[in-house]
């Protein structure tokens, strides 16, 4: 993955931010008023052991500022990580449908800021919990800011935004004891689900591997709602937005996610930061599904219902352009915490539909920023400022940073020369799409929204066998945590409307009676694009490979394997019993990347055990290292060993996997790649076969139930 040289627009946001950056190098400490301070360790006292004096303005300023450092965390999506980058369309084909320049002019590279997030947990919660991930993109276009505030799952829990507070109250920690943190596995959420069957499609996705992304860089993004594109003639076309990651869609294993939550709660955030710092810039392709307005009623679901997808087999996703993230923020609070997304931030060429969830969001996001960012001037915060010129008659309010000159702040005016002017026509000015609206005032749900199960069944039918097994295990885990048996039973009833077999196997794991009869025959339809196995990518780029070494290791073999993996874009790391260097069998030294005790197998994608009898003896005598290998096996990861390294695999008792014995050929069995050869004799096929297994991400065919890790 590389990025083309920067273009001027690409830099526009960065240049704008430069004026807000403050660099402490070579400076002296001052108060907020710019008065130099010589001592900030001792407060001003009446005598060295006396009381602190009110007169100490530096002390009071420092403490007062500190006391006010926190702002409310986001009511949902509180925990996140962000990065800057750019978006560029491939060509102009979309110009037939929209006047939005950033989607249609291939010479324009638009700066962006993207924030990824979990939904339920607090700011300090773990990254790897079972949850939806937010995927919010702010495009700093030349026509103003456009925000695509999406998720990594293409549907939502509810159909009407008025239910959002109820849903969020149910899924957040329970109010009496604030337990559990960042988890949907508790009674109030499943009570809500039991009483709102429209959630069933989304719950299928939430129980799937989509809710456990290996990396933000390896997940899809979706706009979720049906939006509208508007062309130069003012004609509208329905659109669904999709982001596809260049590295494919990949997930963690549930047991692994729980362990990572303790070993490295910043796992996804760190991954994004580190890869950008290393110049491995994450990429996505933007795609659109387009539906002409004449086909509004051509589907067996309602396009305005955000609990439904448009199957890709029915309406293909057409590629539009490429998103690259290439710069980490300078300051988490200033940028990632203060970035303010809003679904109503649209530019000419993009408009809304009557999706009642979207309509609610268009109210909620502005409202929440007023509280979270302390007033109406949050668009002036550096990260939020458009690169398009801003001229309004809005004035005053908390944290006003502009100095508007002149005596007029109203339109129309003559005293200010009539400025700012309101002249201009679409597409120069934003003009709301002219949709005819007619209706009786009703508080009611459309009949066309009332099929709650068909697409849940479609999703289930589209899963591969391992994906199905994970969904069943997730339902059993989550419902197994629900104390009220009647809630478990009601969910099983709903599952029986999705698929009878599914309901039966889930029921068997949670101690409620399995339904006897099928109540709703499975329609048998599937959408292959829904399986994330269909969205994998044949690459090991940025995969972290642990190489276990100790004194006496085969230095030549290690160097070769490391070089071969690096050539393929992977990130090999040498882990040893202690940090520093290890002396190889040939007398050379190898630099260790980390002590094994500071990491764990769950933080790596694959493991290699190199040859070296002495090294392998040391490693085999350490239970933590043996567990490292067994656990990687348990989590279906590729494992490689050469020469005497195979002995450590034997010690780890990897079930019935076939390992190389006295043969220099490469044996591959269930993702375990071994050869008895070492050093010079190591065949090139070893790294090749190993890379192939790593690219598979996980080897699901592996039998792991007897492996105790
Ligand atoms: Fe949000 N959502 N949401 N949401 N949402 C927020 O805005 C809301 C919904 C999404 O990285 C809040 O600034 C309502 C769908 C993301 O800063 C809040 C409804 C989708 C983010 C809010 C929804 C999302 C938010 C909290 C139902 C996917 C994080 C803080 C009508 C398409 C953005 C904030 C970031 C954040 C309201 C439903 C995605 C309270 C009322 C559907 C990615 O305004």
UniProtKB/TrEMBL annotation:
Q: Which GO terms describe its molecular function?
A: catalase activity
Cited SMART domains: Catalase (SM01060)
EC number(s): the record gives 1.11.1.6
Pfam families per record: Catalase, Catalase-rel, Catalase_C
Q: Please give the InterPro entries that the UniProt record associates with this protein.
A: Catalase, Catalase_AS, Catalase_clade2, Catalase_clade2_helical, Catalase_core, Catalase_haem_BS, Catalase_immune_responsive, Catalase_large_C
Q: Which cofactor does it need?
A: heme
In terms of superkingdom, the source organism counts as Bacteria
Q: Where is this region: Disordered?
A: 1-44
Instruction: Give the catalysed reaction(s), semicolon-separated.
Output: 2 H2O2 = O2 + 2 H2O
- Give the family from UniProt: Belongs to the catalase family. HPII subfamily.
Q: What is this protein called?
A: Catalase
The major lineage groups are: Bacteria, Bacillati, Actinomycetota, Actinomycetes, Pseudonocardiales
């Amino acid at each position: 993955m590389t990025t083309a040289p920067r273009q001027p627009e690409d830099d526009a946001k960065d240049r704008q931010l430069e004026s807000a950056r403050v660099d402490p190098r070579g400076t002296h400490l001052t108060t907020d008023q710019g008065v130099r301070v010589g001592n900030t360790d001792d407060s001003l006292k009446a005598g060295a052991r006396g009381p602190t004096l009110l007169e100490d303005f530096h002390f009071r300023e420092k403490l007062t500022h500190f006391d006010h450092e926190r702002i409310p965390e986001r009511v949902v999506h509180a925990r996140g990580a962000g990065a800057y980058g750019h978006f560029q369309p491939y060509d102009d084909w979309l110009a037939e449908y929209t006047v939005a320049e950033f989607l249609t002019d291939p010479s324009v590279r638009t700066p962006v800021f993207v924030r990824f997030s979990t939904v339920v947990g607090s700011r300090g919660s773990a990254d790897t919990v079972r949850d939806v991930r937010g995927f919010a993109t702010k495009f700093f276009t030349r026509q103003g800011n456009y925000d695509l505030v999406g998720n990594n799952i293409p549907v939502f829990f509810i159909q009407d935004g008025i239910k959002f507070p109820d849903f969020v109250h149910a899924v957040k920690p329970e109010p009496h004891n604030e337990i559990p943190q960042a988890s949907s596995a508790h009674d109030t959420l499943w009570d809500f689900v039991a009483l709102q069957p429209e959630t069933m499609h989304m719950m299928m996705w939430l129980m799937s591997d989509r809710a456990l992304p290996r990396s933000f860089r390896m997940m899809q993004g979706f706009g979720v709602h049906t939006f509208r594109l508007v062309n130069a003639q003012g004609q509208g076309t329905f659109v669904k937005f999709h982001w596809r990651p260049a590295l494919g869609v990949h997930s963690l294993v549930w047991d692994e996610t729980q362990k990572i939550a303790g070993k490295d709660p910043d796992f996804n955030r760190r991954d994004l930061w580190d890869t950008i710092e290393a110049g491995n810039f994450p990429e996505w392709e933007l795609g659109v599904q387009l539906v002409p307005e004449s086909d509004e009623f051509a589907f067996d679901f309602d396009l305005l219902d955000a609990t439904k997808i448009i199957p890709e087999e029915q309406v293909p996703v057409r590629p539009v352009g490429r998103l690259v993230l290439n710069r980490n923020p300078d300051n988490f609070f200033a940028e990632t915490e203060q970035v303010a997304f809003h679904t109503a931030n649209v530019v000419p060429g993009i408009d809304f539909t009557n999706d009642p969830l979207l309509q609610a969001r268009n109210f909620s996001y502005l409202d929440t920023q007023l509280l979270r960012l302390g007033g109406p001037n949050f668009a002036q915060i550096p990260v939020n400022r458009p690169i398009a010129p801003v001229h309004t008659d809005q004035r005053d309010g908390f944290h006003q940073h502009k100095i508007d000159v002149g005596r007029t702040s109203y339109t129309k005016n003559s005293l200010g020369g009539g400025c700012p002017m309101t002249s201009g026509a679409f597409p120069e000015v934003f003009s709301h799409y002219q949709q005819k609206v007619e209706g009786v005032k009703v508080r009611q749900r459309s009949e066309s929204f009332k099929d709650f199960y068909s697409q849940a069944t479609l999703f289930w039918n589209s899963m591969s066998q391992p994906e199905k097994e994970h969904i069943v295990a997730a339902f059993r885990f989550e419902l197994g945590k629900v104390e009220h048996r009647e809630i478990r039973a009601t969910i099983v009833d709903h599952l029986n409307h999705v698929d009878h077999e599914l309901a039966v196997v889930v029921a068997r794991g949670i101690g409620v009676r399995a339904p006897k009869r099928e109540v709703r025959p499975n329609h048998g339809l599937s959408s292959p694009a829904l399986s994330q196995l269909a969205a994998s990518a044949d690459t090991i780029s940025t995969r972290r490979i642990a190489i276990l070494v100790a004194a006496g290791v085969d230095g030549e073999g290690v160097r070769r394997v490391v070089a071969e993996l690096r050539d393929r874009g992977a990130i090999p790391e040498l882990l040893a019993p202690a940090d520093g260097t290890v002396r190889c069998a040939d007398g050379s030294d190898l630099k260790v990347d980390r002590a094994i005790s500071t990491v764990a197998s769950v933080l790596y994608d694959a493991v290699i055990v190199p040859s070296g009898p002495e090294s392998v003896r040391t490693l085999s005598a350490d239970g933590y290292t043996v567990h490292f290998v067994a656990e990687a096996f348990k989590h279906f990861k590729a494992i490689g060993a050469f020469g005497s390294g195979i002995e450590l695999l034997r010690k780890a008792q990897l079930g019935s996997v076939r390992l190389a014995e006295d043969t220099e050929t490469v044996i591959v069995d269930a993702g375990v790649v071994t050869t008895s050869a070492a050093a010079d004799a190591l065949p090139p096929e070893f790294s090749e076969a190993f890379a192939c297994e790593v690219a598979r991400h996980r080897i699901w065919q592996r039998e792991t139930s007897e492996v105790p890790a």
